[in-house]
UniProtKB/TrEMBL annotation:
It comes from Gellertiella hungarica. GO terms for molecular function: ATP binding; ATP hydrolysis activity. This is Cell division ATP-binding protein FtsE. SMART domains: AAA. It comes from the Bacteria. GO terms for biological process: amino acid transport. SUPFAM superfamilies: P-loop containing nucleoside triphosphate hydrolases. CDD domains: ABC_MetN_methionine_transporter (cd03258). Keywords: Amino-acid transport, ATP-binding, Cell membrane, Membrane, Nucleotide-binding, Translocase, Transport. GO terms for cellular component: plasma membrane.
């Protein structure tokens, strides 16, 4: 699988070689007989937005808790900015915890404190003087567009505004890594959009590294540069978002992405049979410049029969066009696959079956 050359749509000099902000190696954590993490390895690199997706119970929360030191792995290594954290005492962990800013699904703001006091709280805990805390908190509230609400209480804010405060608070201690745990799952689509824009702006303008844990594939598609798929405590697939979304290999990834990738309409899929005698139906997946090729013509001229588009189109993920098409043609499987092979390995073709009928 091709490595990504962009992060959040921004070209970077070799992100795959950027220094690791968080490095998880062979981490296992069991609860009784439940193996929440099973020798998991994952690297989050400086300046990237990495999406971590997985089904319920896959191990996402346990991984977050291990990363921020709330949970101790049974074995394996976790390094934050090069420092091993698994063998640190709770006291020694405190300054490292501040290197990780957390954003939560339900915001976790203190309702008895004003917006500015919520944002300044991590600074207070870190022993920063009151005037400096206020200055820094106001600066962050300005960054998230809420300076005018500094003295309001959280109950007076909308969900999106609360999350902006949550983000400002997470940034207050100047974290090396922003851990976003389902940060938009409780928000409506429009507010989700504005919060994702904010996270992307912070990533681009401040160079902040983000680990985005979510079950919403649209979130990953909108702002992540890379994606890792966790299942049963292991990373089962990892790569540039455009590549993984264009051609998910693992069954879990395919199932997670089923809702946002074009699928052959069920009524048509149900009609197909491997040994049918009617027109053949096949899919074509291609990324980048290949996505825009005229596949109907490319297949048609070799098959000697018209090729009709049944379903699909071109999506854009980051700066990459991702094409997924379903075609119908009066041809047989071998002829389709022979043509597919001549187009090269970058274009993925799958024969799906024949419709009933006579040829
Ligand atoms: N404290 C615990 N005690 C017992 N089992 C646990 C504990 N924490 C997690 N588990 C188990 O470990 C597995 C992974 O759980 P985890 O909460 O990390 O998954 P998740 O991907 O975050 O799920 P969700 O998306 O539903 O929050 C599950 O089988 C869960 O039941």
């Amino acid at each position: 699988m091709k490595m990504d050359k962009t992060i959040a749509g921004q070209p970077l000099a070799g992100p795959e070689t950027a220094p690791a902000v968080a490095e998880i190696r062979g981490v296992t954590r069991t609860f009784g007989s439940a193996r929440a993490l099973d020798s998991i390895s994952l690297t989050v690199r400086k300046g990237e937005i990495l999406g971590l997706i997985g089904r319920s119970g896959a191990g996402k929360s346990t991984l977050i808790r291990c990363l921020n030191g709330l949970e101790r792995p049974d074995s394996g290594s976790i390094r934050i900015e090069g420092q091993e954290i698994t063998d640190l005492s709770d006291r020694a962990l405190q300054p490292l915890r501040r290197r990780i800013g957390m954003v939560f699904q339900h915001f976790n703001l203190l309702s008895a404190k004003t917006v500015i006091d919520n944002v300044a709280l991590p600074l207070k805990i870190a022993g920063v003087a009151p005037a400096e805390r206020r200055r820094r908190a106001l600066e962050l509230l300005d960054l998230v567009g809420l300076a005018a609400r500094a003295d309001a209480y959280p109950s007076a804010l909308s969900g999106g505004q609360k999350q902006r405060v949550g983000i400002a608070r997470a940034l207050s201690a100047n974290p090396a890594l922003l851990l976003s745990d389902e940060a938009t799952s409780a928000l409506d689509p429009e507010t989700t959009h504005s919060i994702l824009d904010l996270i992307r702006d912070i990533n681009r303008n401040l160079g902040l590294t983000v680990l985005l844990i979510t079950h919403e594939m649209d979130v990953v598609r909108s702002i992540a540069g890379r994606v890792a798929v966790i299942d049963r405590g292991r990373i089962v697939e990892e790569g540039a978002v455009a590549d993984v979304f264009a051609r998910p290999v693992h069954a879990v990834t395919q199932s997670l992405l089923a809702g946002i990738r074009p699928q052959l309409p069920a009524f048509l899929l149900g009609r197909l049979g491997v040994n049918g005698t009617g027109p053949a139906v096949f899919s074509v997946d291609a990324v980048g410049a290949d996505a825009g090729r005229d596949f109907a013509r490319l297949f048609g001229e070799t098959l000697g029969a018209p090729v009709h588009l049944v379903h699909g189109g071109i999506d854009h993920i980051g700066d990459q066009p991702v094409g997924r098409f379903f075609f119908r043609a009066e041809a047989d499987r071998l002829a389709i696959l022979a043509r597919a092979e001549s187009l090269g390995p970058a274009i993925h073709v799958e024969f799906l079956g024949h419709e009933p009928g006579s040829r």
